[in-house]
């Protein structure tokens, strides 16, 4: 926030008749600060406020600015910096900003704390709430706790403000508007008003009076530099290249600068350039062939962008390249079971972002991207990708080529299951022959494939289409959910 915005905010908070359940005034006492962050985030949620506030340097009775000696950079317990210490002990890790300003030569510090949604915020495992002007344990107020669990976000991420109170020239300096018009195949307007009008229609910016705001949608897609937007700078895409199969030695690390849409083509080209390749001979010519299909990389990176949880602070999409695999991760647990990524229409946390990226042809229509990834992996004779649900992340692993002998049991079962999924969504059935073709196994070795199918059935991932049939040669198989 700019100094002018901070002074306006301070004036508005001081103008309230009393402290509220989402506003706390303090002078110097910062004890139990983490508990107050929990309480104010939870209370802001209950009162449908986007933020809760702690203001240091204001008397809580008279609301006069008296100044503060509170130092944002002081240490928490264990000599850890205070803000990271608080953040580490919050669950979920809601975002909060700290600002320092001078009011008539008196220092003021403002904590702006994002309201939680659906999940009460705890500090050191205990959730707090404000009741009147007092901080209490949320467990003592089960009805308030129930309401938090039921609350839906009052605003969408995409419509929130990334940077506000801007003049037209400031908007055009921050937004890569030529990239928008180019990607939408639209002529560039001849004047600023025409540009601003189109960006407003697309909800990339909004107007209040004579001032403009850039929305999160506008900044995350078309920001010239994500670092210019304080709430989005940690959402830049990170690409890390390692030497070998582990993380012991980093060869190179690249952090994205541009918004996702403006920088997408360059990002995919950069990743493709870093991927390991094999040299083959066609006729008399040597040719380098990448070990991973570019289309699969493109689809998975687009998915990581679209389905990330923007409420997970301090982290963004990440692509890690090893000698034998590529790992693509995004913040947030998946909203559907990883076993149903192929057949299930994806549920997006960020539907406006997803819709816009589909319009820009960056990603596929709903549900078709993963199918293409699997098909490409089969065409390249690669092991099946692995989908992982972590505590607060989703990860997809693409493996480099392995012979059937090099694949372990898990690799074979996963490939068999995903092949059966791909067949069903294509209106077909998996058979011994189709799986042999997937693994490039000769017909005389059909028994090897029969064993893989049997192991996958035993794992509960695949079932017989007709369990009563005695013919195994012409048997058909389905994934467990079909």
Overview of the molecule:
The chain is α+β, with helices and mostly antiparallel strands and 482 residues long. The chain has four domains: 3-154, Methyltransferase, Cobalt-precorrin-4 Transmethylase, Domain 2 (2-Layer Sandwich), CATH 3.30.950; 158-230, no CATH class; 236-399, Heat Shock Protein 90, CATH 3.30.565; 409-479, Orthogonal Bundle (Arc Repressor Mutant, subunit A), CATH 1.10.10. Helix content is 33%, strand content 22%. It is built from 15 helices and 21 strands. The strands form six sheets. It has a six-stranded mixed beta sheet, covered by helices on one side. The model has no long low-confidence stretch (mean pLDDT 90).
Entry summary:
The protein has helices at residues 3-14, 33-46, 82-89, 142-150, 168-174, 177-183, 192-201, 216-222, 260-274, 294-307, 351-359, 369-379, 409-425, 432-439, 446-458, and strands at 23-26, 51-56, 90-91, 96-103, 106-114, 122-123, 126-131, 134-137, 161-166, 205-208, 211-215, 238-242, 250-255, 277-282, 285-290, 318-321, 325-331, 386-389, 393-399, 462-464, 477-479. The protein has 482 residues and is α+β, with helices and mostly antiparallel strands.
Helical proportion, percent range? 25-40%
Major sheet characteristics: 6 strands, mixed
Q: Let me know the number of strands.
A: 21
CATH architecture of the largest domain: 2-Layer Sandwich
**Which radius of gyration do the C-alpha atoms yield?**
27 Å
CATH level 3 topology of the largest domain: Heat Shock Protein 90
Could you tell me the strand content as a percent range?
15-25%
Number of helices: 15
What is the mean pLDDT? Answer: 90
Query: Widest sheet: strand order?
Result: 13-12-16-17-19-18
Count of all domains: 4
């Amino acid at each position: 926030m700019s100094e002018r915005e901070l002074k306006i905010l301070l004036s508005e908070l001081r103008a309230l008749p009393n402290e509220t359940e989402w506003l706390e005034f303090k002078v110097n006492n910062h004890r139990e600060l983490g508990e107050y962050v929990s309480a104010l985030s939870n209370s802001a949620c209950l009162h449908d406020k986007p933020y809760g506030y702690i203001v240091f340097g204001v008397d809580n009775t008279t609301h006069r600015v008296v100044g503060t000696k509170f130092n944002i950079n002081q240490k928490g317990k264990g000599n850890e910096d205070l803000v990271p210490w608080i953040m580490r002990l919050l669950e979920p890790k809601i975002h909060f900003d700290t600002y320092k300003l001078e009011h008539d030569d008196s220092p003021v510090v403002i904590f702006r704390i994002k309201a939680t949604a659906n999940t009460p915020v705890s500090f050191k495992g205990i959730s707090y709430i404000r009741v009147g002007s007092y901080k209490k344990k949320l467990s003592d107020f089960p009805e308030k706790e129930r309401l938090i669990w039921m609350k839906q976000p009052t605003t969408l991420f995409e419509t929130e403000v990334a940077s506000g109170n801007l003049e037209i020239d400031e908007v055009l300096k921050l937004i890569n508007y030529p990239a928008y018009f180019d990607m939408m195949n639209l002529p560039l307007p001849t004047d600023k008003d025409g540009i601003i009008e189109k960006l407003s229609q697309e909800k990339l910016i909004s107007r209040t009076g004579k001032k403009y705001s850039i929305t999160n949608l506008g900044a995350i897609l078309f920001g010239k530099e994500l670092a210019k937007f304080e709430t989005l700078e940690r959402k830049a895409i990170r690409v890390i290249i390692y030497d070998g199969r582990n993380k012991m030695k980093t060869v190179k690390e690249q952090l994205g600068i541009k918004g996702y849409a403006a920088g997408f083509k360059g990002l995919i080209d950069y990743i493709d350039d870093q991927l390991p390749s094999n040299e083959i001979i066609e006729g008399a010519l040597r040719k380098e062939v990448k070990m991973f299909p570019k289309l699969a990389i493109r689809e998975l990176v687009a998915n990581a962008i679209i389905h990330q949880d923007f409420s997970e602070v301090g982290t963004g999409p990440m692509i890690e390249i090893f000698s034998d695999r590529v790992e693509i991760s995004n913040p947030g647990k998946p909203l559907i079971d990883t076993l149903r990524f192929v057949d299930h229409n994806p549920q997006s946390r960020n539907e406006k972002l997803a819709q816009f990226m589909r319009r820009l042809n960056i990603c596929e229509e709903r549900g078709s991207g993963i199918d293409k990834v699997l098909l490409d992996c089969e065409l390249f004779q690669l092991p099946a990708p692995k989908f992982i649900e972590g505590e607060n992340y989703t990860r997809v692993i693409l493996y480099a080529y392995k012979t059937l002998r090099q694949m372990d049991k898990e690799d074979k079962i996963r490939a068999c299951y995903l092949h059966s999924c791909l067949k069903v969504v294509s209106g077909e059935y998996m058979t011994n022959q189709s799986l042999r073709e997937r693994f490039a196994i000769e017909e005389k070795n059909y028994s090897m494939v029969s064993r893989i199918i049997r192991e996958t059935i035993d794992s509960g991932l695949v079932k017989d289409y007709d369990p009563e049939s005695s013919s195994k040669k012409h048997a058909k198989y389905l994934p467990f959910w079909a």
